[in-house]
Amino acid sequence: MKKIVLALAFVLLGSFMLAGCSKDEILNHYNNIVQSAGSIELTGKSSLQGEKEKGIDDYTGTYTADYASFSGTEYLFGGTSIKREAGKELSIDCTLEITEGTAKVFWISGSDEAVTLIEATGTYSDTITLPDGGNYIGIECENFTGNIELNIE
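That's the Ig-like domain-containing protein sequence above. Prediction below.
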């Protein structure tokens, strides 16, 4: 409910700001509102198990964590940008070490099924191209003890 109220507040605020704007300005304002609403889905810094350093936007940065019997899902990077200023490509480097339990780093886009990037001890490195809309990278854990180093540019 809180998310819906916040989204409606953004829409109302945006409608007042758009009076007299050009089409491009309206689209830019709309993109900013959509991106702000998408940031709500990210796990808050105080709730994260590790340390996150934000990059140039919510899609990039670094995350390092040591987990001890953690079960849950953390949404680390991403958003709902229609037109991301930094482009659609993200370079992902991840090192995952699993001592106990399970952990998987995933990418979820829109209503598609989540894509597992890595779920065993090892490293992952690739470049992904984001489609328009919601895109999130996170980690899903079940009684996970181990660590992660994640860098996204």
